[in-house]
Amino acid sequence: MSRVYNFSAGPAALPLEVLEQIRDELLDFHGAGMSVMEMSHRGRHFAAIAQQSESDLRELLAVPANYKVLFMQGGASAQFAAVPLNLTKPSACADYVNTGIWSTKAITEAKRYCKVNLAADAKASGYSTVPQQAEWVFTPDAAYVHYTPNETIGGVEFPFVPLPPGGVPLVADYSSSILSRPIDVSRHGVIYAGAQKNIGPAGLVVLIVREDLLGRGREDVPTVMNWTIMAAHDSMPNTPATFSWYVAGLVFQWLKRQGGLHAIESLNHAKASVLYSAIDASGFYRNPVAPGCRSLMNVPFTLPDARLDTLFLEGAAQAGLAGLQGHKLVGGMRASLYNAMPLAGVQALVAYMQEFQRRHG
Ligand code: PMP
Asked: Which residues contact 325 (CB under 8 A, 6 or more apart)?
């Protein structure tokens, strides 16, 4: 067996220990005589998995008691629609901050359900930075303010948590940076995150919502997107993504064994710093993001000549470094350094980059 260092942006690497545990528990989960995939979501085994995973996530993120934690389906994209449906009436206006491709997608979807005001847009910088909050133009009485703390494609991360005026709830798409460091949940009304980066298998989406925001939306929110119904049924008005949920629970336990989010944040800083320093010192590779807004999780970089890209990727694959091709919309390279990527993987990438530069620079 040979496992590669997987830099994919998502679905992404899972901790080896978690994969081994899944393997060990696959045929007979804790004496049930079946795998988690095969068991009823109403039975005692799955009830315990659901309860434990929620309590571990609450502990990791220090989720206050007045927030519900939901395990939903449809990925983060389903929440692009669910957010306006659950938080607005059709005539209402929501504020969005556009920092790149994922915020743009959230905005496009929200416009189908409510009025959208662009409170700020990083377009002028080519989406290489986060606009200072002092420049944002808020709508008085907006239903909410939405932002994308980490743009997975652009590699742009907010260096601050926005503070909407007058108690307007803050909504965050934390898909690609949740659990990479501690966050102050209480500053947010809603946090959602697709699972396939720092949580577990794709399909699942975790949503954390302040209780007083439930019931503010429309009457006709589809049942499986309706946060109030989800919360009333412990995320199980229908069959949840049981296996993904179980794996997410194992990842939460693994994170706790690593020392929680402060410990993982230190490691993530060490990893990112090794790679950014190598890029900046190279005079060959380039990262376009403003230094204060560089993502801890997703590091896009270009080579001086795009004709070298294929050669770079082929050599990387031979060196056991996978998933480095940049998003098709932007090209270039991207190394995603989620929690499951060890420091040794980043060091191996940097060694390969230096060797490639020596040959082709
Ligand atoms: N938001 C962000 C920040 C993302 O990175 C992604 C996926 N890469 C999505 C939303 C969409 O997630 P999904 O494919 O699970 O719908």
From this structure: 309, 313, 333, 334
The residues, any chain, with a CB within 8 Å of residue 148's CB and separated by 6 or more, are: 97, 99, 100, 102, 103, 106, 172, 173
- Could you tell me how many residues make up the chain? 361
| pLDDT beyond 80 at 1 | no
CA of 230 from ligand 1 middle (Å) equals: 21
Contact status, residue 181 vs residue 265, Cβ threshold 8 Å: yes
195 within 8 A of 171, measured Cβ to Cβ: no
**Residue ID of nearest Cα to ligand 1 atom 10:** 76
Ligand 1 centroid to Cα of residue 153, in Å, is 10
Q: Which two tokens stand for residue 30?
A: 């804790």
Q: What is the pLDDT of residues 314-330, one digit of tens each?
A: 999 999 999 999 998 88
**Closest C-alpha to ligand 1, atom 2:** 175
- For residues 127 and 156, give the distance between their C-alpha atoms in angstroms, rounded to a whole number: 8
Q: What is the pLDDT of residues 73-121, one digit of tens each?
A: 999 999 999 999 999 998 999 999 999 999 999 999 999 999 999 999 9
Atom of ligand 1 nearest to the CA of 151: 3
Which residue is closest in CA terms to ligand 1's atom 3? 175
Answer whether 99 contacts ligand 1 (Cβ < 6 A). no
Q: What is the pTM of this model?
A: 0.98
Tokens of 69: 């934690």
